[in-house]
Amino acid sequence: MNLLRFLGLRLAGIVLVLLVVALATFAIFYLLPADPARLSCGKPCTPENYAAAQHYLGLDAPWYGQLWNYLSGIVTGRRFGSGTGVVECPAPCLGYSFPLSTPVTELILSRLPVTASIAIGAAVLWFVAGVAGGTIAAVRRGRAIDRTVMTIAIAGVSAPAYLVGLLAILLFGFTLRWLPTGGYEPLTEDPVGWFTHLMLPWAALAFIQAAVYARLTRSEVIDQLGRDHIRTARAIGLRERTVVVRHGLRNALIPVVTVFGLDLGALLGGAVITERVFSMQGLGALLVNAVATTDLQTVVGVTLVAAFLITAANFVVDVVYSLIDPRVALG
Q1: Is 163 inside a domain boundary?
Q2: pLDDT at 1
Q3: Which of 43, 102, 263, 278 has the most other CB atoms within 10 Å of its CB?
Q4: Considering only CA atoms, which of 91, 24, 69, 16 is closest in space to residue 299?
Q5: Which H or E element spans position 26?
Q6: 103 by DSSP, 3-state: which?
Q7: Is residue 42 part of a domain?
Q8: Does residue 93 belong to any structural domain of this protein?
Q9: Is residue 220 a contact partner of residue 252, using CB atoms and an 8 Å limit?
Q10: Cα gap 281→287, rounded to integer Å
Q11: What whole-number distance in Å separates Cα of residue 162 and Cα of residue 197?
Q12: d(Cα 87, Cα 95) in Å, to the nearest integer?
């Protein structure tokens, strides 16, 4: 019962966070001077044409009415205009992109595989590399390998994402000509092309993020190896590998997993810089283009999806914690 109550509270928290994000994003992008109706009015923009554009886009209602229409459209769908010019946006309707003449939900679903491919592959790579490097550095604390790992980690933390991406393109794309420098191939159409086109984005992101995970893992493992239960495990004659992995690293991974869940959720919302550098049309590129063209409904839709992915990742981490340690649910 405590576990169900814990999960129920977390789900309610997700709904509340999404409502707050929707309200804040709606207020920022719909109450600013940028006027979608003015942009859609045409030339000359007579008062009659402007009023018709406002009505067609649903902008003639007060702001709270517009917000309600947007939120209810997610559940029931929306209809813009009337008569022969009506535009249908089926549920879940996250808005309609009039510049692209496409429902925002369709745009997001078409771009999500690109972003998910970048995020998940890079996340697996940086988690494995960061945890392994941090653990080795902690076990060999103060030695040459520890200093080497931490030097690389400092370089990774300090390097801008666009710089790492451009250097990777210059070295592996133009100089060595080993890998393609950009673009995306769908996994279902060309698995080999999908893999080769993603290797550079994965490596660029993993180099930066693995540095953070290596530093965090090293700190946590060092802390765990200094505790009483580790001394006891060594005193009873357990192998050092068993002591480090089973009793030290296992506990050290708890905060690492927390950060991993949040980082993955944020990256699934759009790797803006990486997508731009490697010419990939994911959610990040969609968001940047929507801001540039004042496509406000697309901006709100992508922002809301990004917030959902982050809160969903946080929810998954909470569930895993509650299963590993029931005291989390009790707290």
Answers
A1: yes
A2: 52
A3: 278
A4: 24
A5: helix 2-30
A6: strand
A7: no
A8: no
A9: yes
A10: 10
A11: 17
A12: 11
What burial class does residue 289 get, using C-beta atoms within 10 Å of its C-beta: 0-12 exposed, 13-18 middle, 19+ buried? Answer: middle
CATH code of residue 246: 1.10.3720.10
Handedness of CA 272, 278, 280, 286 (dihedral sign): positive
Shortest CA distance to 183 belongs to which of 117, 102, 107, 126? Answer: 117
Q: Tell me if residue 89 falls in helix, strand or coil.
A: strand
What is the dihedral sign for C-alpha 124, 126, 127, 129?
positive
Q: Following DSSP, what letter does each residue of 291-314 receive, concatenated? A: HHTT-HHHHHHHHHHHHHHHHHHH
Extended strands (E) in the chain: 78-80, 87-89, 96-97, 102-103
Per-residue pLDDT tens for 234-256?
A: 788 778 888 887 777 877 888 88
Q: How far apart are CA 78 and CA 232, in angstroms?
A: 64
Residues facing residue 87 across a β-bridge: 80
Report, as an integer, the average pLDDT of 263-270.
Answer: 78
The answer to whether 137 touches 214, Cβ cutoff 8 Å, is yes
Rounded Cα–Cα distance for residues 254 and 251 (Å): 6
Q: What is the pLDDT of residues 44-65, one digit of tens each?
A: 778 888 888 877 777 777 878 8
Contacts of 67 (CB under 8 A, 6+ apart): 22, 23, 26
Instruction: Report yes or no: 209 and 128 within 8 Å, Cβ to Cβ.
Output: no
Write the pLDDT tens digit of every residue in 163-211. 888 888 888 888 888 888 888 888 888 899 999 999 999 988 888 888 8
Q: Cα–Cα distance between 113 and 117 in angstroms, integer?
A: 6
Number of domains in the chain: 1
- For 191, how many CA atoms within 13 A lie in the half-sphere containing its CB? 0
Specify the amino acid at residue 116: A
Residue 287 lies in a domain: yes
- Token look-up 């969609």 returns 286
Residue range of the domain that includes 261: 105-292
How many CB atoms sit inside 10 A of residue 213's CB? Answer: 25
